[in-house]
Amino acid sequence: MSVNHHISDALLLDYASGNLSEGWSLAVATHLALCPSCRRTLAAMEGAAGALFDKVVSERPVTTSDWDAMMARISGPDTAREPAAAAPKPSTHARTSAGVIPEPLRSYLGGDVETLKWQALGRGAYQIRIPTSDPATQVRLLKIPAGKPVPEHTHEGRELTLVLAGSFRDGEDLFARGDLEEADGSLLHTPTATEGEDCICLAVTEAPLKFSSWIVRMIQPILKI
Amino acid sequence: MSASISISSRTCHNEKKAGVFPLSRVQHGLKMKRTDRNLPEPDLSPAQLCDLLGRVGTERSVAAFETIFRYYGPRVRSFMAMKTRDAQLAEELMQETMAAVWNKATQFDPDRGNVSAWIFTIARNQRIDAFRRKRPAFDENDPVFVADNGPLADVELEGRQDAELLRKAMESLPPEQLDVLKRAFFDEASHSTIAEDMGIPLGTVKSRIRLAFEKLRTTLEGRR
User: How many CB atoms lie within 10 A of CB A167?
Assistant: First the structure.
């Protein structure tokens, strides 16, 4: 089964140029692991950056002392020669079947679906908060029971949802394994898990504003801010 | 020891030998007094770059690496200076990047790879590390990874063909699209910053990105 909903060029360009923060990048990179088509676009983008590199008019050439500094760095023991280091590393979980959650997400979770510790959200839905060093995003794995809507679905700003198991419908569109939905705050949507199988998806949203003052924290629920 | 004394391997840079493939380590240790001199940038095609980096990987050729260093050193330094606006830091990041090129060259596949794209990704990752940020990436050796079984997925010399095609396709892009790509890749500017600086709506920035990559994708897929 192939992926039908891809990363937009604008978002992928941010990832290719190194301009996308960790939370969003986690969703993009996990989609890329499942989507050869977007990897080809990524390669074209990196190729475009390479072509721009070739066009750079440099201010000045390197000098003999630059090269000496370089030689001093690379004259040590040649670690790249060690064959063992280049061997493919085994995945975090040895398995006979391929598994559900690809890298890099699996390492963030510490294992695949069978090892996860879910936190109940009510009405049969579960979540796992995924810690990152990116304060601008909130990253969660969600499990939505078959046929039920995605809970707590109010957000502002950008939201990325990547399906890993099962599927959900949002309006006319069906999102299945590997599909990425890119939404912004202006879009009113009510994703609902498809009947037959629970839907597991990675959801990245902009981090909610945190108020440090305890007074603001107390009145926050009253004002619904 | 004065700054003008070579502490490593500069001795081979007399005019006769400093051609495209200068000797390097051969006379290592013969410390001679020299003033700092420029090492001119060679003019190289993607195919030549591929062969050179291939030799760095397989033979650990210092001579081939010096040519790569002369070609990319100034480019990587300019790239780093655009974001950091700090000449000293740009110099350090250039050295870091080129050392990583030497160390990772064994992983470069000269039959499949595109050297400029490959070095760009190393420079980009060095820049991300320098700003202590993280950029999660997929792992091709992961058993859950979905491999590409598309047409001609393992075409021979694919990378260098792509590099040539992309070079030509980039030359045919309208300047306003090229400007947006340059700002995005080199300044690491956000789309809204680009829009602001260029005095155009954000939607126009996004449509220029989309048009540019439609063109580049079509170019590459025309070959498949």
Answer: 18
